[in-house]
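Duplicate of #3305? Posting structure anyway:
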């Protein structure tokens, strides 16, 4: 919560006071298999009390939102289908955290790299994803992902205190793709919300963006994602090392 409050005045520089970073789950998404999204990385920090997502773009590099990598106690997990998998999974430790040089809390530059101290072991549920050089088309459908709906009925045993215990995904529609940011809206109230930060936004098998924020703090409204294509050259210089 401290990080969220600290970021709000800075986010106003880009979208007035309309954008809130998201530290929670996908609303009304469907349960997803990690084998369908094997590039999804699970980031834990602040003593595992807060979570973000990320995308594996190289065996030792994870791409995520810049506001997700402010803490030294950051660990990365891969192949996570359920939250309970984290307890039994091997964490990858971080050698270096790199925020985009222009990042000052604005969603426009809310992108960062996590350089790991060891290489990720790839397999059927752990793979890398490529980054396109072009933005997604207006009106096209993209997929967002994260851990669950904001709330669940008592009969749903997969949810606890509003946090889904399984990876979920949803399709949303691109309504703008300028100013370094992609914005989307969902149908049937599909949306990202407050833990989804930094998680992949994909089209086909390409990483078109990273989840960054929501408009007016309203998870049912417009969502904002960092456009990966805008940062292709910056990312590439680290990929070549």
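Output from current build:
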């Amino acid at each position: 919560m401290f990080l969220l409050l600290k970021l709000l005045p800075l986010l106003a520089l880009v979208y007035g006071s309309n954008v809130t970073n998201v530290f929670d789950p996908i609303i009304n998404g469907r349960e997803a298999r990690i084998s369908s999204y094997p590039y999804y990385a699970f980031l834990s920090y602040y003593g595992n009390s807060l979570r973000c997502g990320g995308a594996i773009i190289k065996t030792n590099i994870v791409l995520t939102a810049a506001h997700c990598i402010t803490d030294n106690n950051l660990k990365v997990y891969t192949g996570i289908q359920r939250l309970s998998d984290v307890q039994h999974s091997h964490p990858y430790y971080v050698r270096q955290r790199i925020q985009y040089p222009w990042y000052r809390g604005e969603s426009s530059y809310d992108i960062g790299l996590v350089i790991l101290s060891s290489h990720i072991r790839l397999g059927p549920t752990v793979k890398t994803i490529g980054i396109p050089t072009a933005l997604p088309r207006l009106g096209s459908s993209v997929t967002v992902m994260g851990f669950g709906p904001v709330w669940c009925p008592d009969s749903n045993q997969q949810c606890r205190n509003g946090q889904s215990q399984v990876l979920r995904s949803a399709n949303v529609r691109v309504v703008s793709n300028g100013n370094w940011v992609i914005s989307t809206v969902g149908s049937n109230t599909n949306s990202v919300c407050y833990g989804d930060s930094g998680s992949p936004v994909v089209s086909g098998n390409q990483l078109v963006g990273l989840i960054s924020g929501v408009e007016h703090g309203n998870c049912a409204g417009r969502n904002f994602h960092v456009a990966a294509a805008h940062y292709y050259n910056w990312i590439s210089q680290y990929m070549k090392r």
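Confirmed duplicate; merging threads. The longest strand covers residues 206-215. The chain has two domains: 38-128+232-240, 130-229.
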